[in-house]
Amino acid sequence: MKIGSNVSFSPEFGIFDGVDDLAIILFDEEGSIKGWDRGAERFFGYTAKEILGKHISILHCCRNSGKFRRKDGSEFHAELSITPFDGIYVAVLREVWDGKRKKTDRALNVLSKTNQAITRARSEKELLESICEIVVDEGYAYSWIGYAMEDRSVKPVAEAGKRGYAKSITVSWDESERGSGPTGRAIREKRVTIARDISSDPTFHPWRKEAAKRGFASSIALPILYRSTVFGALNVYAFEKDAFGEEEVKLLHEVANNLGYAIAMLRSKRREERIKEIMDLLWNLVISDLKYGSFLKELLKGILEITESEYGFFGVLSGDERELIVLAWSEEVMDECKLPDFRLSVDRGFWAEAIRKRRKIITNDYGSWPEKRLPEGHIPLERFLIVPVVKKQTVYIAGVANKSGDYTEEDAEMVEFFMKNAQGMLEKKGMEEMYRTLIENTGTAMLISDSTTEIKFVNREAEKLFGLPEDEIVGKSWTEFVFKDELEKLLEYTRLRDIDPSLAPEIFETRIVGRDGKVRQILINISMIPGSKDRIASFIDITELRKTQEMLRESEERYRTLFEKSRDAIILTDLEMKILDCNVAALSLSGMEREDVVGKSFLELGVLSKEDIPAIIENFYRGLKENIGTLELKVRFKRGSRWIEVSPTTLRKDGEPFAILNIVRDITERKKLEEELKSSLERLKVLHELDVSIIEGKSFSEISKLALKRLRSLLNFELASLFKYDKDKDEMVLECHDSEGLEGISPQFISRTSMEDLKEGRISHIGNLLEISSLTGFERELIRMGLRTYIHIPLIVRDELVGVLCLAARKPNAFEEKLQFIREISDQLAIALHEAELFEMRMKSIERLEKNIEEYAILVDHIRNPLAIITGTAELEISNEDVKRTIDDAARRIEEVVERLDRGWLESEQIRNFLRRPQK
């Protein structure tokens, strides 16, 4: 339709379709409805087709009342504003909230639906987006969640409602102007911050213009916390000023707290999954049989997979720390990366700072990196992560770039964890490559054959000796190269070695025939390769004795260099366990001098635990007869206790053992990580069981029994009691008790701290009762039962005391190292106890409502029956019309009161039915 001469609207239009509490209606001077937007359709329930042409009065309940009637007959309050416009009237209606109760209801709905979303969430991103959508769906104008970044900025991660607001503003959580608004203060001060009137709040100045565009009148910022960690803030906006009452704020604060807990749990679960993925990658590397070059590529592939990165490299810092020796890299980064190998100077490049300061670098905006400079032809960088890994004297550097999302501290931690665990394998592969290089360059002809005499490997010197290339030697039997007169003797030696290696000589002379038919007199040394049936044979052409002697001398020096320069500790002992020699790495590990260890046995050094000595002696002498693999031992050095892994090899001469070569590695960090991982998994399992019990609505009695049982079995103490705080009597009441072999002890509650101290959250902890001069009766009873320490932990929910967890143990100071985990369990118990109290209050409310409903029904009957008598008597007995009208008017007023009582009765019925619904 046309309005005036220049303006026109279609009958169905929507100027403020995004504003939930506005409706616009156009009508002419006759009162006929000419325009109907989607907001009006939401308010009244009529479609445009149904209402256009109808009179405006169809929408009013009564004149000037501010009440309007929907299509279904229900009524609602709204503010009405009418503006004339060239013969047409524009009516704008804004729904009026039904006071504080309706505001509280929407916050309650947000809390309820948030808890449901938390139980269903599969990822952190999905959860954040769901929470924002729930907030807006329940009647708020807009919601966004911002995370607190390391550089003190606030990054929007989810939004709902008036799209784009969070991305159109800049917020920080520092002390600047943009950090002094509600969001910045909520994160920095870890408290709820409200802007009750955005148009006049001075702290909202930087964002007022964008907020006004969208009609925002007030806002609230709620910190998203888990324990002492603040993740960011949940921001909620309303179209009305001062929209957030005290009860509403409490409920929204609980939404933010629950969200913080959920984020922590999702991250913990994700971290556990990532660690499992890394362990799978490490296992695949362990069981792989890759050569050094292929192993390096797989290692880089693992780093890229862990961080979901597009490009990457890793290398090792040179001994003089002047160069980064790149071991593996993404060749597609630039043309130079297609070279066989290269080295990078550490005086420039974004990895240089990581090397110099031995710290990780995370940049998710390469354009803002102050020292950005890439060589010509390098692919563009969007974000990168550099992680130095320092272990002993070696510095490895891993770098990745162009992840689809942002790099995090957790990404750096995962890379470091992977690299530290892979370092041993990397060094082993490097050692194997070095041994292969040594075999190739030792100057001695060598071959490896299996038990069937088939040749599996020859080095270049062997090719020269036989006068054949490798591919014409490998796969053949070594018997084809033996002089026929010597063959039977060699075959006999082979058979004897299979029966008992001590029956056959390791070194002997024989003759071989080369390709040219020339017979050579050689000296052969044959050894069994440990862990297999393969043999390694070295050949020396003794026709050139001087050359042979020189080669032997050089070979000895090379092996001595290997011995001294090995990063693994090497200890050589005789058959009495006395140390004959050790390398520098062994001395460094033990913190001792050579003169302190050489000539002494392991037992004399005092580094072994007494309980381990019998098993060590047994394994030592068993190792003289058979391969026993590796041993893990806990030893005491000057710098403290360490875990070591010992790989012993028996050295034999003429078939008889004469010494033991022990390769020793420090595995303390690995053992510590294994224990930490095991402990974390056990703790998470217990916490998860309690979470599930709370969510499933189990009774507090069931939850408390489960918690005490798990605590005792996991932390190995003897007594656990749980007390519930009775507010009316201001005393503790026993709720649950669990003990091991201590049924005779009275599970009473006596604390050295006052009830006021407990209400303040103070813990009562006695580390050793025998050190206390004045004991309570309860403490004497604990001593009599053999218990030496106890702890009382107050259970606090929303700054209110709900109960106390009491634990006791035989071992003094038994709870000091486990206090954090005990606190976590007590927090869960506090929540469970609080939920139980809420359930009890709910049941009392239902009982009160049922009494109210019964009283309503009785009261209505007591009023209506006399009223009917009064009106009937007036009609029959009173002839004065004025008196009769007076009585009728009074009766109508009483009837109106009765109708209100009826409505109150119905409302009470609805509330009772709502409260009786099962909680999900």
Any overview of this molecule?
The structure is a single chain. Residues 1-9 and 14-18 have low confidence and may be disordered. This protein is of the alpha+beta class and 920 residues long. A six-stranded mixed sheet has the order 3-5-4-8-7-6. A hairpin with a 4-residue loop joins strand 30 and strand 31. 42% of the residues lie in helices and 25% in strands. The radius of gyration is 42 Å and the shape is elongated.
Task: Give a short synopsis of this structure.
Helix content is 42%, strand content 25%. The protein is α+β, with helices and mostly antiparallel strands and 920 residues long. Strand 4 (22-28) and strand 5 (33-37) form a beta hairpin.
Q: What form results from the Cα inertia axes? A: elongated
Helical proportion, percent range: 40-55%
* Rg, alpha carbons: 42 Å
- What is the tally of beta strands? 34
- The number of helical segments is 24
| Relative strand content | 15-25%
The biggest beta sheet, please?
Answer: 6 strands, mixed
Question: Strand order across the biggest sheet?
Answer: 3-5-4-8-7-6
Unreliable residue stretches:
1-9, 14-18
Structural class by sheet pairing and helices: alpha+beta
Mean pLDDT, all residues: 78
Alpha-carbon distance between the termini? 51 Å
